[in-house]
Design goal:
Blueprint: H1 2-17, H2 22-29, H3 33-46, H4 62-71, E1 74-78, H5 86-104, E2 110-113, H6 117-122, E3 135-138, H7 150-164, E4 167-169, H8 180-186, H9 190-199, E5 204-207, E6 210-211, H10 219-222, H11 228-236, E7 239-243, E8 246-249, H12 268-271, E9 276-281, H13 287-295, E10 301-305, H14 306-315
């Protein structure tokens, strides 16, 4: 019975979560295709697999409902089995986020994308949906003193553009300027103003939550965007993380953090004008940063796994 259950769980996980075909599962498990089909049917009849349709209002579990009441966001909750490896948890949340974003975008939309570890994973699960007159725009600069950031950021933006048959507009500025006055001067340049103007027209935005101390390292804190002095300053300012490279405290404040005067991303106030804003997170160690992002009003739709959602509630 244990072997039968293991085969049933493996088949169901590979078919419904990882998107493998029955033929592929049969090869991997050393079974026939008909046996895999019976295992999947048994998984459904036994309750191991429960198929449901997500409502536009989000999930309705007690955890999701509580977060909705506290922050006024739609919560799209992914139930991940206890003991699931971190990369599998991340993968399942990214899969749901990819589907939700694909459903949300439409013809002539401006789609904002903040680069990062999370969005790079979500791009893999976008459902192809050719749109008329849609544009994908980069929400925050990607260069730093060591790298142009173009290969990393370009892969993410191009993936979204390809999925939706949309033109891609890059934001050719640093993630963080060395001097606030340099940023102010750049914002007067027509090439930069054109991108900023497009960002103000966004209909949909997708982003993750960066965290100074995360189990899965945030790209902005691990890839040379901030030096040791900057990191010490962030700690002194009580910063817990960021959205679109705009730094946040756990109480949601951000306006008096000095480094934000040099940041190129959209502020929470600017983000709040976007009708649909998908925040995607799958890491309980980011709970403090998630609380800060939600309190700052960055989000309309929170795509999150149950363990991370509980960590957020525990933090509160």
């Amino acid at each position: 019975m244990n072997d039968r259950y293991d085969d049933m769980y493996q088949a169901a996980s590979r078919y419904y979560i990882q998107g493998e075909t029955m033929e592929s599962i049969a090869r991997q498990l050393g079974l026939s295709r008909s046996t895999v089909s019976r295992l999947l049917a048994e998984a459904r009849s036994s309750g191991l697999v429960r198929i449901s349709l997500a409502d536009r209002s989000g999930s309705r579990s007690p955890v999701a409902t509580t977060l909705n009441h506290i922050f006024g966001v739609r919560v799209h909750l992914v139930a991940v089995r206890e003991g699931t490896p971190e990369d599998r948890r991340f993968d399942q949340v990214a899969r749901l986020a990819g589907r939700l974003l694909s459903e949300a975008v439409g013809d002539h939309h401006v789609i904002g994308v903040a680069w990062g570890v999370t969005t790079s994973q979500v791009v893999r699960y976008l459902q192809p949906k050719p749109l008329v007159g849609a544009t994908v725009v980069q929400m925050n600069g990607g260069t730093n003193q060591w790298s142009s950031g173009i290969p990393y950021v370009g892969e993410i933006l191009t993936g979204v553009g390809d999925a939706f048959g949309s033109r891609v507009v890059y934001f050719p500025v640093p993630a963080f300027f060395d001097y606030a006055e340099t940023k102010r001067a750049m914002w007067r340049e027509r090439s930069v103003r054109n991108v900023v103007t497009l960002q103000r027209r966004m209909d949909v935005a997708i982003f993750g939550v960066g965290c100074l101390k995360a189990q899965v390292p945030s790209h902005v804190y691990s890839s040379g965007y901030l030096d040791d002095h900057d990191m010490r300053q962030l700690a002194a300012d009580g910063v817990v993380g960021d959205v679109s490279t705009v730094l946040l405290r756990e109480d949601g404040s951000w306006t008096d953090i000095d480094l934000n005067a040099r940041a190129s991303g959209l502020t929470p106030a600017e983000l709040s004008r976007v009708p649909r804003r998908f925040c995607v997170v799958a890491d309980p160690s980011r709970a403090a940063a998630i609380v800060g992002a939600l309190r700052a009003g960055t989000t309309t739709d929170l795509v999150i796994d149950e363990g991370t959602a509980r960590a957020v509630l525990d933090r509160l």
